[in-house]
Amino acid sequence: MASQTHHPHFLLLPLMSQSHLIPFTQMAKLLATNGVSVTIVLTPLNATRFNMVIDQAKALNLKIQFHLLPFPSAEAGLPEGCENMDTLPSLQYNHLFFAASNMLKEPLEKWLSELETLPTCIVSDICLPWTTNVASKFNIPRVVFHGISCFSLLCSHNISHSEVHENVGTSMSKPFVVPDLPHTIELTKAQLPEAMNQNTKAWKHAIDQFKAAELSAEGILVNTFEELESMYVRGYEKVVRKIWCIGPLSLHDKLILDRFGREDNHNKTSTDETELCLNFLSSKKPCSVVYACFGSLSRIRASQLKELALGLEASSHPFIWVIGKNDCCEEIEKWLEEESFEERNRGRGIIVRGWAPQVEILSHPSTGGFLSHCGWNSALEAVSAGVPMIAWPMIAEQFLNEKLIVEVLKIGVGIGVEAGEVLVKNEDVKKAIEQVMEQGGDGEHRRNRAREMKEKAHKAVQDGGSSASNCKLFLQDILGMLHNS
Ligand code: UDP
Fold it and tell me: What is the pLDDT of residues 283-297, one digit of tens each?
C-alpha cells in the first residue's frame, strides 16, 4: 500500500450540489493559503462550473487541483448528464442522486490504491458517510464538514435523542420545546427536517449511517463562527469529538482574493447579470433595496411566485428578485408578460432569471433586506454583509435557521410560515418587507444587531480571529496526529 505523503495533502469530498460545492471550494482556498495542497474530487460537469477556482489558484500560487470521477447518472437511473442536484428533474429523484453519489466509493478507492503517496487527511461532506470505510481502509484520518449551523445541529440532535417530537403524537402543528438548549425554542413536526419525521427502516438506517460517520470522525469542521453561536458550538461539542468553526467561508474567500487583488467570480455569474445588478444597486439609496432569492434548489410553484411578485411590488421598496432556474416555467413567464410586470416596475425592480451574484448583491451598501429561504450559506452570507433577513423557510433545516435568525440573533423577521408548502399571500410579503426595512424602531435595532454581527464575522476571519485561528489549530491537530502515529 502507498505511504502517507510528507507534504500535507488534503482530499476534499463534497456532495455534488451548489450549496456544498461553493463552501468546499472556498475551504480549499483557505486550506491552501495555510500551506497545504488540496485535491477536490469533482465530476466533469461540476468541474466546468468551478474552473475559475483552478485559475484563481494558479494566479495566487495555491496548490489546488481537481480529481475527476465520472458521475454514474445512468447506472443510478438518473437522466444522462445529471451530475448536480440542481439538474434533477424533480425532488423525487433525490434518493437516486444519493445512490449515484454512493457509487463514487469504488472509483475513488481504485484511484487511491494507485497513488504513490496517500492524502494526509480526508475532509468529507456529511452527506457521504461511505467515506468512513474509505478512510479506515487506507488508514487516512477523516474529518466531516458541515455546511449548517451548530444551532441546527444541536436542535436536531436534542430532538432525536429525547424523541420529544413523539410527545405530540401525529400532530404536525402542535408545538414542542426543544430540550436542553440555552434558549426556549418551540418547533412543530412540520418544521423539522423531513428525515426526522420518517419512520421507515430505510430512513432510520440512513440517519444512523450519517450519525456514525460523524461520531467516528476525528472532528467536524463547521461553516460558522464562534461569536455567532458560541453556546451552541459548546453544546454540540459535547456530542462530537471536536469542532473547528472556520467560517464564514465566503468572507475568507473574499479576503484571500482581495489580498491578491483578484475578483471573486466563482458562482458562475455572467458579467451581464453582475453588471445589471450592481448598476441597479448603485442607482439606489443606501439600505433601500430588498433582495429576494431562494437558493440553488428552489422549486417554487407559479401561484406562489405570483403572490411574491405582487408583494414585492406592493412594498414601497426597490427590489432584485431571483427566479431560480427550476422556478422558471411557462406559466409564470406568461403571467409576467400579461401583467407587464417588468414594464410596470421598470426602474423600481429587476428580475434575474437563473443565478444572481448573491454575495456581491448582499455586500452592496444599497441592499437593505434579504428575503430568503434561510439556507445556511445564504443566512451566513447575510450575516457577513450585515443585512437583516426576512425568513421564509421551506424545507430541510431552514425552519431551524429561521429560529436562530429571528429569535436568538434577532436579526430578521419571519414571514409567518408554519410549514413548507403553505401559500404566502402578497399582503404578508409586503408586511414582512416593511417590517424589516423600517427606519427607526425595531427595524433600526435589527439593523444595528446585524451590523454588529457583521463586524464580528469580519474579525473572525482576520489573522488572529477565531475562525482563522481555528483553521490553523485544525491543521496542527491533524498534522500532529500523524506525527504521533
Ligand atoms: N446562490 C447564488 N446565486 C443565486 C442563488 C444562490 O450565488 O442566484 C448561492 C448563495 O450565495 C449560496 C448558495 O448559492 O452560497 C445557496 O446555498 P444555501 O445554503 O443558501 O441554499 P440551498 O441552495 O442549499 O437551498
Answer: 999 999 999 999 999
Q: Is 359 in the pocket of ligand 1 (CB under 6 A)?
A: yes
Distance CA 316, CA 319 (A): 9
What's the pLDDT tens digit per position in 3-58? 554 799 999 999 999 999 999 999 999 999 999 999 999 999 999 999 999 999 99
> For residue 469, what are the CA distances in angstroms to 245, 362, 377?
9, 26, 21
C-alpha cell at 294: 431562494
Q: Residue 170, class by beta-carbon neighbours within 10 Å (0-12 exposed, 13-18 middle, 19+ buried)?
A: exposed
356 CA → ligand 1 middle, Å: 9
User: Does residue 1 have a pLDDT over 50?
Assistant: no
Instruction: Check if 3-254+461-484 and 270-459 are the same fold.
Output: yes
DSSP string over 330-389? HHHHHHHHHTTHHHHTTTTEEEEEE---HHHHHHSTTEEEEEE---HHHHHHHHHHT--E
Question: Atom 5 (ligand 1): residue with closest C-alpha?
Answer: 295
Say if domain 3-254+461-484 classifies as CATH 3.90.180.10: no
What is the pLDDT at residue 261?
Answer: 65
| Beta carbon of 322 within 6 Å of any ligand 1 atom | yes
Q: Which CATH architecture has domain 270-459?
A: 3-Layer(aba) Sandwich (3.40)
Pocket lining: 313 vs ligand 1, CB cutoff 6 Å: no
Q: What confidence tens digit (pLDDT) does each residue in 345-369 have? A: 999 999 999 999 999 999 999 999 9
- For residue 479, the CA-to-ligand 1 centroid distance in Å is 33
Domain map (residue ranges) of the chain: 3-254+461-484, 270-459
Question: Whole-angstrom Cα distance, residue 436 to residue 48?
Answer: 38
Any ligand 1 atom below 6 A from CB of 148 = no
Burial zone of 259 (CB within 10 Å; 0-12 exposed, 13-18 middle, 19+ buried): exposed
Residues near 410 by beta carbon (within 8 Å), at least 6 away in sequence: 445, 446, 449
- H/E stretch holding 391: strand 389-391
Residue 267, ligand 1, Cβ within 6 A: yes
CA distances from 377 to 56, 224, 235, 440 (A): 21, 9, 21, 28
Q: Would the CB of 18 count as within 6 Å of ligand 1?
A: yes
- pTM of the predicted protein model: 0.96
**pLDDT range class, residue 264, cuts 50, 70, 90:** very low
Cα 297–Cα 405–Cα 439 angle in degrees, nearest 5: 110
DSSP 181-220: -SS--EE-GGGS-GGGG--SHHHHHHHHHHHHHHHTSS-E
Strands 367-372 and 289-293: parallel
Is 295 touching ligand 1 by the criterion CB < 6 Å? Answer: yes
